[in-house]
Design goal:
mainly alpha; two-stranded antiparallel sheet; 14 helices
Length: 449
């Protein structure tokens, strides 16, 4: 099977919307079941992997290798008495877990998991649906999910839950901007916002020809756009409230965060389900946009049939397991950051770096366009870059002057306190008295312990 034959089975936007309704229902039900089972497996896998990293066994009693432990926990939470505090807003308190879970399932509907296949005699793509702006749909669903966290904190009528909800809203606003900017480079190179088309764009890297030179480009955007990929890796941890960015659930200062007033019952199980499904969604988005989607990695891709039929489902599943293992590794290895560090990372580091990287990527793409005066493009890019450097230098100089002024004030205050010990507001006894409070001062001979 040659490359042209393989391209013939790659789904495009024109292939969607033609499935019979029963095929779409089967796809939706299968996705729902797989995600539900994935949550059960994910909880067990996370507990097992963390336990191995911490030199212990983890779940090993319920079922073979403890595989039934997650099932037992789910049954327990489903059958446990549902306690509801008196002061909660009952409507908001009830719908908040639903608002958390439903958008997470909807976001997975635009994730491509394979090429065109034959399903019960019908030629259909291994994807529920696709849109010209499918990536924006994922971002919109992620934005709606945070409403569930905010409503859970608000409806609980608890100060700690309220703080957790407010933290989540500020955190998502900060990191969703950086996440959206990390996608811009992918859009510029793929030329589309459709998830299936982005996967197709990573089939071959192409050739970059600046000033008559022929430079081969990698096919996966995680290599070609590595700054965008690294920034997205950080933002997906913040978007899903996972360690080290789990500030909305900080047990040390919030007693559990926005879910403090939810008893360990079915509502808590739905919140936990939504968290894991969101992790699966951001993992699938990273695979789709940066890791070639369902396409086989090298050297498996050398085999002609690797990207045809049902085999791509296996490659997609392996990539999902690897990305999810990265989440678990971060949880087991990194401590929780302070909230000011979290916000400073998002606004002062990730967003400026993203903007500078987008400028560079846009310049490269402009140089690839035919009949474009490259000198004008380079001059404009240089002007914008110099302007950015000037703004950065100006703000950095102002910040440095503020730090120096603050240091001088602090040093002057210390000097004043040293010269006048009682100036700090605390009474200090004279240090030359022979005794204090009836206790005589005695000289201790040298060499005595």
């Amino acid at each position: 099977m040659n490359a042209r034959t393989l391209l013939a089975v790659d789904p495009t936007l024109a292939d969607f919307g033609k499935d019979p309704i029963w095929i779409s229902i089967i796809k939706a039900v299968v996705i729902f079941i797989v995600l539900m089972l994935g949550v059960l497996f994910g909880v067990w896998f996370e507990r097992k992997l963390i336990s191995r990293m911490q030199n212990r066994y983890g779940p090993n009693r319920a079922g073979k290798f403890g595989l039934l432990q997650s099932v037992a926990d789910g049954i327990k939470m489903g059958l446990k008495e549902d306690l509801m505090p008196r002061t909660v807003d009952k409507v908001i308190y009830f719908i908040a877990p639903v608002v958390l879970a439903v958008p997470a399932f909807l976001a997975f509907s635009v994730i491509p998991m394979g090429p065109m296949v034959s399903m019960f005699g019908v030629k259909t793509p291994l994807q529920l649906t696709d849109l010209p702006v499918a990536v924006l749909l994922v971002l919109a669903m992620a934005s709606i999910s945070v409403y569930g966290i905010v409503l859970a904190g608000w409806g609980s009528r608890s100060p700690y839950s309220m703080l957790g909800g407010l933290r989540a809203s500020a955190q998502v606003v900060s990191y969703e901007i950086a996440m959206g900017l990390s996608f811009v480079g992918v859009f510029l190179f793929a030329g589309t916002l459709s998830t299936s088309e982005i996967v197709n764009a990573q089939a071959s890297g192409g050739v970059f020809r600046p000033f008559g030179l022929a430079i081969p480009m990698p096919s996966w955007y995680m290599i070609l756009l590595i700054p965008s990929f690294l920034i997205y890796i950080i933002t997906m941890l913040g978007e899903t409230n996972r360690v080290p960015f789990d500030l909305p659930e900080g047990e040390g200062e919030l007693v559990g965060g926005f879910q403090t007033e939810y008893s360990n019952s079915l509502k808590f199980a739905v919140i936990m389900l939504a968290e894991y499904v969101n992790v699966f969604v951001v993992s699938a988005v990273s695979i789709t946009l940066f890791m070639g989607g369902w396409r086989a990695p090298w050297p498996i891709s050398i085999w002609d049939g690797a990207n045809a039929g049902w085999w791509p489902l296996l490659w997609f599943f392996i990539k999902m397991v690897l990305v999810f293992s990265f989440f678990v590794w971060c949880r087991a290895s990194l401590p929780r950051v302070r909230y000011d560090q979290l916000m400073a990372l998002g606004w002062k580091i990730l967003i400026p770096i993203n903007l500078a990287w987008i400028l560079l990527v846009a310049t490269v793409r402009a140089l690839q366009l035919p009949n474009v005066d490259r000198s004008i493009v380079l001059i404009l890019a240089a002007i914008v870059l110099l302007a950015c450097l000037g703004i950065w230098w100006r703000f950095d100089s102002v910040l440095q002057k503020r730090k120096e002024t603050k240091a001088e004030l602090v040093e002057a205050e210390f000097e004043r306190l040293d010269a006048e010990p009682s100036a700090g507001g605390f009474p200090v006894p004279p240090l030359d008295l022979p005794h204090y409070h009836g206790v005589e001062r005695k000289e201790v001979p040298s060499g005595t312990n």
